[in-house]
Amino acid sequence: MSKATLEEPATTEEKVSPLLKLVLELGPLVVFFFANSRGEWLASHFPVLAEMGGPIFIATGLFMAATAIALVVSWVMTRTLPMMPLISGIVVFVFGALTLWLQNDTFIKMKPTIVNTLFGAILLGGLFFGKSLLGYVFHAAFKLTEEGWRKLTLRWGLFFLVLAVMNEVVWRNFSTDFWVAFKVWGTMPITILFTLAQMPLVMRYSVEPPEEGSAP
């Protein structure tokens, strides 16, 4: 199999607009926030939604629908499903269904804890066995040395665990509305800032691709 063939999936994914990627990632969260804040209005205008329960349950149902749409669009555009959004989506469907079925919002509130703990454990567990798993996820975006991938994987593994702890503190000690707002307007900016803070490390350990025609 040629090198071009091996890199074809990454090339296909790169054709997707960065703006579209951002919409697919943030869209479901914005829907969740809007539906929770305007739950009563939605229930009065769309009686079928009222059958789900209060605002948080309406938001959960629409969050599940928006997540499914985002995954379908991602598949149609790239013919692949990124591992992290896929795992997160599965947890959304499972815990969202439990939330609606049992009419208990504890399940959807625990979803970020479960997902972030899972990601953190996978990344740190991979390092324990000598594998920098983050390199397998972002190899198409960055070319780093082994040490670079190891450090970046460690940082992200710990960051995911911090997010899990933060979610537990917020949902257990504050109102549902505050938790929803923090999930959208708190967690996302924190994640963006953390990502930007890793750019010096990425630049320091970047590997320049060999020029065409150069000797192996």
UniProtKB/TrEMBL annotation:
TM segment ranges: 56-77, 83-102, 114-134, 154-171, 178-197
InterPro entries: YciB
Pfam families: IspA (PF04279)
Alphabetical keyword list: Cell inner membrane, Cell membrane, Membrane, Transmembrane, Transmembrane helix
Its job: Plays a role in cell envelope biogenesis, maintenance of cell envelope integrity and membrane homeostasis.
NCBIfam families named in the record: ispZ, PRK00259.1-1
Protein family: Belongs to the YciB family.
Record-given protein name: Inner membrane-spanning protein YciB
Species whose genome carries this gene: Shinella fusca
